[in-house]
Give the backbone structure.
Amino acid sequence: MITIFNYFAGILKGLWNLLVGLSVTIKYCFKPVNTVQYPEVRMPLPARSRSMIKLIYDGEKDQFNCVACMMCAKACPNSCIKLEGVRMPDGKRRMTTFKLDFSTCIFCGYCVEACGFDALTFVSEEYENTVYRRGGLLQDEQAMKWVRPPHLAPKPEEVAPAPAPAPAVPGVSS
Amino acid sequence: MTDLLLSRIKGDVSSSGTDEYVVNLGPQHPATHGVLRLIVKLDGETIKQTTPVLGYLHRSIEKICENRTYPQCITYTDRVDYVSAMTVNLAFALAAEKLMSIQAPPRAQWLRMIFCELQRIASHLLWFGAFAGDIGALTPFLYGLRERERILDLFEMTCGQRLTYNYIRIGGVMIDVLPDFVQKCRAFLDYFDPKIDEYEDLMTYNPIFLERSRGVGVVTPEVGINCGFSGPSLRGSGVSCDVRKQQPYLYYDQIKFNECLEMAGDCWSRYRVRMRELRECVSIIRQCLERLEPGPVEAKMPPILKAPPASEAYVRSESARGEMGVYLVGDGTPKPWKAKFRCASFSNLYLLDQLTRGWKLADIMAVLGSFDLIVPEVDR
Amino acid sequence: MNLFSNLIAKAGETLHWLYIYLGVARITDLLDNVVVVVAMFGGTSLFVMFLVWMERKVSAHMQSRIGPNRVGPLGLLQTLADAIKLTIKEDIKPVNRDKIPYFIAPIVAFVATFMGLVVIPFDNGVVVQDLNVGLLYIVAITSFTVIAILTAGWSSNNRFALLGGFRSAAQIVSYEVPLVLSLVPVIMTTGTLSLNSIVLFQKTLGMWFVVPQIIAFLIFITSATAEANRAPFDIPEAESELIGGFHTEYSGVKFAMFFLGEYIAIVVSSAVAVSVFLGGWLPFPYLSAWPVPGFVWFMLKLLLMIFLIMAFRWTFPRLRVDQLMDFGWKVLIPIAILNILITGALLLFFGKGA
């Protein structure tokens, strides 16, 4: 007798749980969707987003900030960065060529952190970086040139590890 | 190599007189576990033997780490388990800190705990979707991902990436959280709590789901411990094995949380353990957010990190899948002499063969799903 | 001259043959039937296209996403684009197939389900042919799909397609029993098999059959989804990811025919459920004053039932094959038989109306 009762009770309980499950999906059927129509609506990425690496070009001084100290090339785990510099007559170093191979870059951010001269940065708006040919991923300093707009001047407390308290500068091998 | 495998599989003809045939659940799966190849010997519908073939996702991460400095290795640990990358970052950072005797500041430890627990929630949400998809319900995958996207938004706000964070560093974390992170995190937790109830409504007592998962793939505690099982899968068999309770790291001994145990050891118990762990994670994060105090987020360290010569360190931690261990051998240079990752999925995969013998083909998917396997962890 | 008279004689012979063998009295009768059938065919094809779009939209909104929205306004032409793609696809055929059964199987699957639409009443008396054995005819026609599936599995010359075909056929055959048994109490109450008369009976009864026969309604929906190889019972389709369903070796238009046949099976089963249990073309209760033709009520209820069947697919996990058979034989059939016994007892004691 008990098993017959269990049989029917099991069926009714199963039916009730099925209905509860259906109610969840049908409820979501009439709620607003969670997606945006991408090409027409572009969601803004957060400021710290590691989207695309750019070389900062100083508009006033009309030169790149980079002094070819090679810290970024040593910090990179995959050796993506190849750069050359030259010593100018006034004693300062300037970069002549800078090549970053984005096909091996993993966007870890070590180069940006290692740079002590505010020469490399992530630009969060530029996240559509597909190319038709693989050669397009080996970018030189002209392709990576970026002028910082005035409203994005770096604030002291927001800059990712400031050079002053020396963090473990990664990847400097002896 | 394949000939060797196949010759081991094609054993003797079965006594019932029916032919056995071998089916290849190939590396490209509709199920979302990654590139895992299973060679299944079937007799009609019943499974006789399952042989996993590994190596389709082997990237020799451990060998690569021998040629990179300790901080550079952290970028590779993200890829060992890309579904819950923070926990692997943490395990490596803890091992390196033990090797070099570095102590991270308190704020960094609390932040590490918050991010690891958020990562555990994110990983369990993806598991929930994948498990439901294996069983046949296609909608919970989208629901799990919808909540996971919110967690990834929190991560992106802090460190800039959604999958491979490189956030937990040796000596602390990469950067301090933004001022509105705490409030956004609390808002997410308030939004997420009722969602767990919804998922339970949808799946837990669904009679079809109960039929597919109750009594399937039973792991007894002895078999589990002998085979190196760990994590929520072993807690589903009633064995108390949470590393956060046994050998507390970070500040887990100062936080109150329950270890979720279920006794039956079948797929349904493992499912229940993970759903209860979701709620526990929410409570842990709430406690950590309250105890967060201002301070530095990185320890004072020499600019070039060198391990002492002839030193070694092994650290166990609890990732979302089970016990994650990192073994480092240092030799006085900035690069490790040996780095070894003990991954939970690799050990858990071993039991698949024993558990599915005599069951039907559809049960392989149920058991695999309940183990919460991630193939990059299996192959590294 | 001879040629012309020969032609007239031939035409006369053809008409005489038509009269004898098809019962066509006048040429207008023949044209009448042809027009109705073509309208039926065209209308149903358009409706099925709409249904495929609806399934994609409904499943998308259940999953908090948008679904087709680029091809045509609101994505309505998406199915047309898919149909064109399937038509221009290469027709890949296995070399060692059984040629004639391979060719016929999709046609049988398609035609058999279409034939079920002949007895559905869309409005009072608006039926292609109101057979007085309407329900029996529908149940008999849906058995044709078993032949199509077995033929497809056999002729593909593929061991796994054959296994998938066997499994699918076993499922359909075992779920036909509760399908029929759930309709028996309704037939006992109304005393007729004609669908139009059943709807009229609900009008005189004052309420739809879903109220007294809720159990039969639930059994009917479950068996109908199992008949169409859908929703929680789609092991043949899903296992095709692992091994092979009966339609593995079909591509292009032939695959489209199986696919469309499945949707038309859904439409036919829902239409039968609506007519028998939900009052067919009768207006909703308390809304009978609205000047809306019965056809609109029928379509509304049909869309509601189809929405329910789609919700089943996207909410519930899949049953394993042996659990599926257990469920059909050990749960649905005993409950259906109990339902018949109780209905019969009540009819006996209270005369007409239970």
About this structure: Chain B has two domains: 2-53, 61-379. Chain B has a mean pLDDT of 89. The beta strands of chain B are 21-25, 37-43, 46-53, 168-169, 172-173, 311-318, 323-330, 338-342. Chain B touches chain C at residues 21, 23, 25, 30, 45, 132, 135-139, 142-143, 146, 202-203, 206, 208-209, 211-212, 360-363 (CB under 8 Å).
